[in-house]
Amino acid sequence: MRTLTKLSKAPAAAPHTKAPETAPENAAADVSAESETARHELEGRIKGDGPLARDTVPYTNTHPHSQAHESAVKHVTGRAAYIDDLSAPADTLHVALGLSPVAHGRLTRLELDKVKAMPGVVDAIAVSDVPGHTDIGPVFPGDPIFVEDEISYVGQVIFAVAAESHRAAREAVLAAVVEIDEQAACLDPVVAAERQEFVRPTHVQQSGDWEQALQNATLIVEDEQFVGGQEHFYLEGQACLVQPTEDEGVVVFTSNQHPSETQKLVAEVLGVPFHAVTVEVRRMGGGFGGKETQASPWACIAALFARRTGRTTRVRLPRAEDMRATGKRHPFHNRYRLGVNDRGVIQGGEITVIGDCGYSPDLSDAIVDRAMFHSDNAYSLGDARVTGHRARTHTASNTAFRGFGGPQGMMVIEAAMDDIARRIGEDPLTVRKRNFYRPGRQMTHYGQQVDQIALLKELVEQLETSSDYWERRRAITEFNAESPIVKRGLALTPVKFGISFTAKHLNQAGALLHVYTDGSVMINHGGTEMGQGLHTKICQVVARELGLDTDEVRISATRTDKVPNTSPTAASSGADLNGQAARDACVKLKERLFDFAHEHLYQGQGLEREGMRLEAGHLVAGHGESERRISWGELIQSAYLNRISLSEKGFYATPLIHYDRNVGQGRPFYYYAFGAAVAEVSVDTLTGESQVDRVDILHDVGDSLNPAIDLGQVEGGFIQGMGWLTSEELKWNEAGRLISDGPATYKIPTYGDLPPVFNVRLLEGHPNSMASIYRSKAVGEPPLMLGMAVWSALRDALASLADYAEAPRLDTPATPERVLMAAETLRAKYGAWPLKKSGV
């Protein structure tokens, strides 16, 4: 049975939306349209007041609380509008793309005359038709909107077609005359690094004399590993709808994590001022980083057609084209050489990470930096040097993905922990605990002191006890001694993840707050909603500050004409940054309302201004018998009639953070989030097939803004991390064409892959030591790295074939083929052949 944390119940909130007038032929819509009783029952269960809902903490207006996602009812009843659901004029154009069939070469001929003559075609464009910038690199140049000369990967956009229907556009693409001088492609980042073929310069972080540390060490442990990439596989693919406006402008409706960047790039491509472009994002059907930079090209192409034709234009990529044309999580080649003492404690050494960046920089500089920052995970490296290379290969430019390089960096040190333990004959958990950051060893290799080290120790010890780690370890060792084929493995791995954008200027956010004369509240902020519950948390922040129920607070779509110059919703910072900005707006408005109330409503009553507060829908002044209350609605009406502004903007910039890349030292993170997972697996060593039998997780979110949402993020992050490390294999053929380009060939975890026992808890009683929003901690990315416990448990199971004297190299994803090859390697070395022993 799957077991989950139980919290206490939250009452249902009143629904904001009405049922549709006509019901589609499905159960959810039938409930919402035809049966008011059933609809309210369904919505009540979704919101936390029925048997379908997980129990949540008690609801109050003065403490962070669990609450259903603000769009949960819309999600399950089909009323949540995504890009393809938006109404558009009847003459809307549909776009198809002409993509490169080769990985490397030069475009020698492109003729689109036959394309333009195809039925239904309205326009076809290539690079010569772009009036403004043709390079849309998000940070550094290198990303042409269309191929001009050099072709750099299979799936690169050469031209685009706009037609009356999507089918007509796709058929017209086939009529193009495209001639390419194909050249040899490089698909191996190690070879690229040896040739010094980089998209950005190599970077080094160093602390102390690492060479001397190696010389003085009792034992040297070294190895290398390949860490595979990962497809974002968002349910809603890349999509946008662009409408031309008066003058030279456009309005862009897009599934996008970075509206301001898209505004900038669309304006530059069109050759118009930024204010001529408005970008709106209400929600995404998943993002995971894949829509941080790589949602912009499609908006730029659609905007070109919209301005050229004066017609609304729609782009949506078919799944296979989406997977070929867009980047993935960076694959990495990692190497380590570490010196340890006789107890397995790291004294120092060197780590090298090589990120496979694809053909252009995109965000690779920051991604490889973050891999370097996290190559220590939760352990002190001592005197160490960490080197990061950014290799150029002829594949789509790899990009942000949940964890942003951090998971790939952590893999190298987790491999080292297992290897050290086998070399000295200790349990891997014992070695891990000895190497944790600790008093006297709190400084990272990049010069930041790790706070809350006692929290990490306590968290791991709690999980060690609650999961019965040592009892299960004994049972598994006994089982493996008697089982010649099926081997079981167990591992506990920690997570220490830094929270902040490592590009300092991105650590800022804005918000816009409106209070209307009926007392209802509208909040807008720069963050985007991709299903993670950010909008829900922001509504809760506003409701808490204004002393209201969350039903009285509504959130609007993220728009660049409301909150400008926003940062992407990434780096796990959405709630931290935008929550603080929303709170800032509320605090400013409260101060103005308190001043007004003191001067006009309570004048002469002897009530102190400083004692005023908003709670339970009232402004309260004084205490005890002298307490006076006025309802929120009366307060707002009075303020309006007295010409007091009921609108406010908020802003927040994260303090303290800095990093000097010239010396590789600084404080790139405001704080760290911690967590740990215990995974138990079973492996059939004759087929390589494995299954996850049980998982126990304890994760640190500080004082949670919303325990129910945070719990879901931990569960989902773990499963996504498990999929990255076990089943999600990206495969290219020798010509550089992605052949795992759909759900038939690329295998994400399904419901059947959930561990039968799945215990997930949030750490309680440990608020953030830094002044984050209500002392909470970010929860978007850190849980993904909990999936490393599954990979480490697989290595543990295989190590039993060598009587735990060696942990085999196990590259990721640890597919059955890789697991089987690792088992065969150990059997060849240690003679553990069960069938021969059985006389077969």
UniProtKB/TrEMBL annotation:
Coiled coil: none annotated. Belongs to the xanthine dehydrogenase family. The keyword NAD does not apply. This is Xanthine dehydrogenase, molybdenum binding subunit apoprotein. It comes from Halomonas korlensis. It comes from the Bacteria. Residues 36-48 have a biased composition (Basic and acidic residues). InterPro entries: Ald_Oxase/Xan_DH_a/b (IPR000674), Ald_Oxase/Xan_DH_a/b_sf (IPR036856), Ald_Oxase/xanthine_DH-like (IPR016208), AldOxase/xan_DH_MoCoBD1 (IPR008274), AldOxase/xan_DH_MoCoBD2 (IPR046867), AldOxase/xan_DH_Mopterin-bd_sf (IPR037165), Xanthine_DH_Mopterin-bd_su (IPR014309).
